[in-house]
Inverse folding.
């Protein structure tokens, strides 16, 4: 497939935003339970703003993918059948909850809505946060299923696609949360950086698993099934036109195999190895973490942009069988 | 239920591209607006087409065969492009099975083109919406045309009659008979999309001439043998001068 930067930025930006929100909510919940030092409302409110910035930027990027963005509201109508429609519903709903969660913390409006057994109060922010965390995970699934549900894009049609979108997005979000806590001087760096390392290494494992799976794929469609002639030796002599067309532009990356291989190593280093090392350095040394963690996030984000580029470029659409030779 | 479709006879198609130009001409002149061409007389020309003819060489030189292969939307009975559409712009008509795009609802997200294994949907560069073969829905029900002309433009244009058009759910239609009797098949059956359009395979067409068909076996008055025949070894210019 041709990697479209609008979709690359959409998926990587909202993935980081969702992960950051999961980190904020996780820190607040564990703070209430007394496991972690409770973060201040101001920290959580500003963090929500940061998450919203990523989500809004992702949403803006997605509009560049549309030919007719003024009709984008129509996309919410076919949620019964279309994963894209489901994503379009879940993304604004999630953004709304992040906004409410941040606003509740910013204005200090946090009434207890009831009590759980054991005298635990049900705080408004915990309710909003739980719903937000649920939608964050649902949003990972809907985003990934847009790709995973197309069965003839065999590189995408796998549960690993959903796992990777979730783990990689959450990893970058927790790295962002670590950088943000370090910058804000909040003692949550160890918590967020530890989870970020775990998620980054888990993401490395699942992404490598999908690379291995994809390298072994046997294409179900061949030129024989494409034109229905059973002879083993068929060569295209003409695709029917000499110039380009939508078919020759949209479904191929137009890069060399060497470029693709280089991209693979760049994203393996950038999205996983270097950020994991930087996070580990922060965890085991007494180095000033702010600069290192910001660098870790920026490198991991760029690495994920490369990862997403590769994700699209690697998918080989069966329609390409019909466009093997100009004439 | 009706399922209108094309049946394309690969044994007859000569690859003349008449269906391509006729399709482009009809569909660029319709109510839905033009199928835009960009740089038509310049370097890198490109444009929107609903129908293409491709050519494939089968076999190894010198024992090869050329297969000309017209390709347009197959109006699948289980169209994978329809359920993925987030707006409902892409739909399959209940009444006749034609897969269409509502150009007023389409947002141009290209997702349906990703979800079509055949690559028959194209975003128009100017209208920015997804376009595709409509099976000339504006011809086949067009009461301003004489009844014999209410067929897709590609079918009307084909000089060798390689394109048949009809209802594949009606067992007595010309297309159903062709599928049944001439080995009609579907493209990429592995994806379960059940294309409505079918293709008829190349066939061996051999003409065997036996000797008694050239010289009458029953030759009652022995007339044939009275004709002068050149000797086996004699040189001859051709059949006429050798008489």
């Amino acid at each position: 497939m041709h990697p479209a930067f609008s979709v690359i930025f959409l998926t990587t930006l909202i993935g980081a935003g969702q992960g950051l929100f999961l980190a904020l909510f996780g820190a607040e919940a564990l703070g209430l339970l007394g496991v972690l030092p409770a973060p201040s409302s101001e920290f959580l409110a500003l963090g929500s703003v940061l998450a919203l910035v990523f989500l809004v930027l992702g949403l803006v990027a997605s509009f560049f993918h549309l030919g007719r963005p003024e009709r984008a509201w129509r996309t919410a109508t076919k949620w019964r059948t279309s994963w894209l429609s489901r994503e379009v519903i879940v993304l604004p709903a999630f953004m709304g909850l992040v906004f409410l969660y941040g606003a509740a913390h910013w204005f200090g409006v946090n009434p207890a809505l009831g009590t759980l057994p054991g005298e635990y109060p049900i705080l408004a922010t915990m309710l909003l946060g739980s719903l937000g965390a649920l939608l964050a995970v649902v949003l990972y699934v809907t985003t990934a299923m847009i790709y995973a549900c197309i069965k003839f894009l065999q590189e995408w049609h796998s549960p690993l696609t959903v796992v990777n979108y979730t783990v990689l997005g959450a990893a970058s979000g927790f790295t962002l949360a670590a950088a943000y806590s370090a910058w804000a001087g909040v003692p949550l760096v160890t918590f967020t950086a530890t989870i970020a390392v775990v998620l980054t290494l888990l993401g490395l494992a699942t992404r490598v698993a999908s690379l291995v799976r994809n390298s072994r794929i046997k294409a179900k469609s061949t030129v024989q099934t494409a034109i229905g002639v059973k002879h083993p030796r068929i060569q295209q002599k003409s695709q029917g036109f000499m110039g380009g067309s939508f078919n020759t532009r949209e479904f191929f990356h137009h890069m060399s195999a060497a470029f693709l291989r280089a991209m693979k190593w760049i994203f393996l280093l950038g999205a996983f190895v270097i950020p994991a090392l930087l996070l580990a350095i922060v965890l085991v040394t007494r180095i000033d973490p702010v600069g290192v963690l910001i660098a870790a996030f920026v490198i991991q984000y760029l690495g994920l942009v490369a990862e997403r580029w590769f994700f699209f470029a690697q998918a080989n659409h069966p329609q390409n069988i019909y466009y093997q030779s100009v004439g | 239920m009706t399922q209108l479709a094309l049946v394309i006879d690969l044994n007859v198609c000569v690859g003349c591209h008449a269906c391509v130009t006729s399709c482009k001409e009809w569909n660029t002149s319709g109510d839905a607006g033009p199928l835009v061409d960009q740089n038509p007389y310049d370097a890198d020309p490109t444009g929107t087409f609903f129908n293409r003819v491709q050519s494939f060489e089968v076999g190894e030189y010198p024992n090869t065969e050329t297969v000309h292969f017209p390709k347009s939307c197959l109006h699948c009975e289980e169209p994978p492009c329809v359920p993925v559409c987030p707006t409902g712009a892409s739909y399959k008509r209940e009444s006749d099975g034609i897969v269409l795009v509502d150009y007023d609802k389409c947002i141009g997200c290209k997702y349906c083109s990703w979800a079509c294994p055949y690559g028959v949907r194209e975003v128009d560069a100017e209208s920015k919406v997804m376009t595709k073969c409509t099976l000339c829905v504006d011809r086949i029900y067009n009461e301003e045309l004489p009844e014999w002309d209410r067929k897709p433009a590609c079918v009307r244009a084909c000089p060798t009659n390689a394109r048949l058009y009809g209802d594949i759910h009606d067992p007595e239609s010309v297309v159903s008979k062709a599928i049944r009797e001439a080995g009609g098949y579907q493209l990429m059956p592995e994806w379960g999309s059940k294309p409505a359009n079918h293709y008829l395979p190349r066939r061996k067409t051999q003409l065997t001439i036996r000797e008694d068909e050239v010289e009458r076996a029953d030759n009652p008055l022995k007339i044939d043998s009275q004709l002068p025949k050149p000797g086996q070894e004699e040189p001859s210019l051709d059949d006429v001068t050798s008489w």
